[in-house]
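Quick review question:
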């Protein structure tokens, strides 16, 4: 009963006119930032943090603003992913696999509306999870050490086997290319320069934004220029703007499953929306793709990752609020906001600052409603991007991409590297190499290596540490099941059907 009382007091804070206006502004800014390729929630929150402090906003108001921007970015990332095949952030990579083919079929409005609805469901489930299970899940997250994280990432990679289809060698090569790109830079443990070719610009490694803009944006521009004449568009004209009840029913249970899985993965510090969306996409593909339509514009392939990345974003608040441990890069920036107000996140936060905590949680419910109400009517505006002729659209995408990459280090080297990666990405796409395994391997590669080396350092090189805990063993078993299960199913299913 005390939880409901605290939540009621939180709604009193969140529904104050000032906080309500701030939440609406944050939702709009977050959606815009999220749809710009490469910026993502970390940049959106980081940009507004000094502004919120300079305006001397109360701590609960500042946190409501930043949380609204964070959630809005997760909503907005799907827009460019679906419309122009350029993910707004890493969490939207999986959305592009089926979202962009839907847009090319003339179903951009349907894809955008179902993704907005799935994002809403995922975020609401995550927020309810924060209210009900935060302390319990925080204690569970503490059980994860380097060995457990390594096993989790191996499981995520095993889920990529669902992408293989009839291209196992190309998928494996794409994954290896992604891992190779992730290894560039200074080795964090030994300080040795790896694959930098004596270039100081590569000492910090290759930035995510450079890779994602190159592989998706630059290569997409080249494909658009190749496939169209001046004034023509690649996609068909968009028909209806909203999904129907049949499509909602078709995606409903997948959305619920993905929301729960995404929330649990989001609770793990550092796991994030990228792993959540990859795992849930592959889970839905294995469970429901009996017709082989995933990757060709299946609406279920849009709903699942969108529900997962939004619920993972909500789950990242659990370790931040209960343990003082950032669940993601964005919540790390938000922790910085709390410290600016001399508030220390951790176990005592719920007792010492109930107004801030419960006001934040209540505002997340409100922000999701605002985002749903805001995004659905704007679908018609978003889809008009598809009617823009390529002679105008291509320079626009190029300009946004160049600005986004240049803003990272303000060096022309990043622009040249982006162009080189884009040309390689174009060649790989022409050769029918899948891009999603490559970019996921790049995102997860460094995390995988660091956790493996930490685990081995703790155990003095004993590999057995990777198989000691129940959590690790569970993930290894799931990984084997992901690799072996589909092959056994394909082998014995014909016999079962013949016997029937």
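Suggested answer, residue by residue:
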């Amino acid at each position: 009963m005390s939880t409901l009382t605290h939540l009621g007091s939180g709604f009193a804070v969140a529904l104050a006119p000032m906080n309500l206006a701030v939440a609406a502004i944050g939702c709009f800014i977050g959606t815009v930032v999220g749809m710009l390729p490469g910026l993502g929630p970390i940049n959106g929150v980081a940009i507004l943090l000094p502004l919120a402090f300079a305006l001397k906003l109360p701590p609960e108001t500042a946190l409501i603003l930043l949380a609204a921007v964070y959630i809005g970015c997760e909503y907005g990332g799907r827009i460019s992913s679906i419309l122009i095949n350029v993910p707004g952030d890493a969490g939207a990579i999986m959305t592009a696999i089926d979202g962009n083919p839907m847009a090319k079929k003339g179903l951009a409005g349907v894809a955008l509306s179902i993704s907005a609805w799935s994002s809403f469901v995922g975020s609401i489930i995550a927020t309810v999870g924060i209210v009900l299970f935060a302390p319990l899940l925080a204690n569970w997250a503490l059980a994860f050490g380097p060995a457990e994280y390594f096993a989790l990432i191996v499981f995520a990679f095993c889920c990529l086997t669902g992408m293989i289809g009839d291209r196992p060698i190309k998928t494996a090569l794409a994954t290896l290319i992604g891992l190779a790109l992730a290894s560039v830079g200074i080795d964090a443990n030994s300080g040795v320069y790896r694959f930098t070719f004596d270039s100081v610009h590569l000492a910090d490694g290759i930035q995510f934004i450079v890779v994602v803009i190159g592989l998706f944006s630059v290569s997409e521009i080249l494909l658009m220029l190749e496939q169209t004449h001046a004034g023509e568009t690649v996609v068909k004209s968009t028909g209806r703007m909203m999904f129907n009840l049949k499509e909602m029913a078709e995606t409903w249970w997948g959305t619920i499953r993905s929301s729960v899985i995404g929330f649990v993965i989001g609770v793990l510090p550092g796991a994030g929306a990228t792993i959540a969306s990859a795992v849930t996409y592959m889970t839905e593909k294995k469970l429901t793709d009996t017709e082989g339509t995933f990757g060709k514009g299946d609406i279920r392939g849009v709903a699942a990752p969108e529900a997962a990345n939004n619920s993972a974003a909500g789950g990242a608040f659990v370790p931040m609020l209960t343990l003082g441990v950032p669940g993601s890069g964005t919540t790390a920036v938000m922790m910085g906001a709390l410290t600016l107000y001399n508030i220390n996140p951790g176990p005592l936060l719920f007792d010492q600052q109930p107004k801030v905590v419960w006001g934040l949680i209540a505002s997340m419910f409100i922000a999701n409603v605002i985002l749903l109400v805001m995004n659905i009517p704007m679908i018609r505006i978003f889809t008009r991007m598809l009617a823009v002729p390529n002679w105008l659209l291509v320079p626009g995408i190029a300009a946004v991409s160049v600005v986004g990459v240049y803003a990272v280090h303000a060096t022309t080297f990043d622009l040249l590297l982006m162009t080189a990666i884009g040309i390689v990405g174009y060649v790989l796409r022409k050769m029918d190499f899948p891009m999603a395994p490559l970019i996921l391997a790049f995102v997860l590669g460094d995390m995988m290596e660091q956790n493996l080396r930490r685990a081995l350092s703790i155990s003095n090189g004993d590999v057995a540490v990777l198989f000691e805990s129940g959590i690790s063993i569970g993930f290894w078993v799931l990984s084997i099941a992901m690799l072996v299960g589909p092959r056994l199913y394909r082998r014995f299913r014909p016999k079962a059907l013949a016997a029937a």
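Why it works: Strands lie at 185-186, 193-194. Residues 229-234 have pLDDT under 50 and may be disordered.
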